[in-house]
Amino acid sequence: MSEPVRVLVVDDDVSVALVHRGFVETLPGFVVCGTVHRGGEVLPAVRSTRADLVLLDIHLPDESGLDVLRRLRASASTVDVIAITAAREVETVHEAMAGGVLHYLVKPFSLATFTERMRAYSAHRSDLSRHRRTPERLHQDEVDRLLQARQQTLSTSALPKGLSPRTLDVVVASLRQAGDADVSAAELALTCGIARVSVRRYLEHLERVGLATVHPRYGRAGRPENGYRWRV
């Protein structure tokens, strides 16, 4: 039987930290190894508790969770990080992604949403562990699958009401296939077989969370339109 995932809960609000601790404790295969409330306490706690996963708040009283994330990576720590925060700014999401967070959960969220993300993380961790136990090098399709799991996890975090993960996957796949070319919502709608208005909403979501870039397209017939490009 595999060892449970050791989780360090980081939140400046004591009551919220207790809620998140309770969420973790409902999940088989996970155990809380510690709780801290300040950014300066995170790195020592990761070392002393041998944490596998940090649930990291962005708004901390002494420093930003983004700074904590940078210090973790500068220390060569390989601990996994899931951002759990009320911060919704595009730049914050993008910096968290650049720091290697595996999920970005926007407060408040339900136990069901938390459970879904943690199960996805557990599956991704198990997949990595399975590959580590084999001496063979990864094939390209295996590398793609591991990276795609992270990208899809990030893109579905805090999905706006009315958007579905399954349709988002279709839009993401079509946008990635376009490569370095900018594509409009209308062009992508034809590829996906989805209404243009719906495609635009998914593209706007991807742009907000930093997974797509948007560029005005000039010099074309008709009204000016935006072109989108996959960013990761």
Description:
By secondary structure, this protein is an alpha/beta fold. Helices cover 48% and strands 17% of the residues. It contains nine helices and seven strands. It has helices at residues 14-25, 42-49, 65-74, 90-98, 111-132, 140-156, 165-177, 185-192, 196-208, and strands at 5-10, 30-36, 53-56, 80-85, 103-106, 212-217, 225-230. The protein has a five-stranded parallel β-sheet with strand order 2-1-3-4-5, with helices on both faces. A two-stranded antiparallel sheet has the order 6-7. A hairpin with a 7-residue loop joins β6 (212-217) and β7 (225-230). α5 runs antiparallel to α6 and α8 crosses α9 (196-208). The longest helix is centred in the middle third of the chain and has 22 residues, at 111-132. The two termini are 36 Å apart.
CATH architecture type of the largest domain:
3-Layer(aba) Sandwich
Please give the CATH class of the largest domain.
Answer: Alpha Beta
Count of discrete domains: 2
Mean pLDDT comes to 82
Give the % helix. 40-55%
Report the span from N to C terminus. 36 Å
Structural class: alpha/beta
Based on DSSP secondary structure assignment, what is the total number of beta strands? 7
The biggest sheet amounts to:
5 strands, parallel
What is the approximate shape? elongated
CATH superfamily of the largest domain: Response regulator
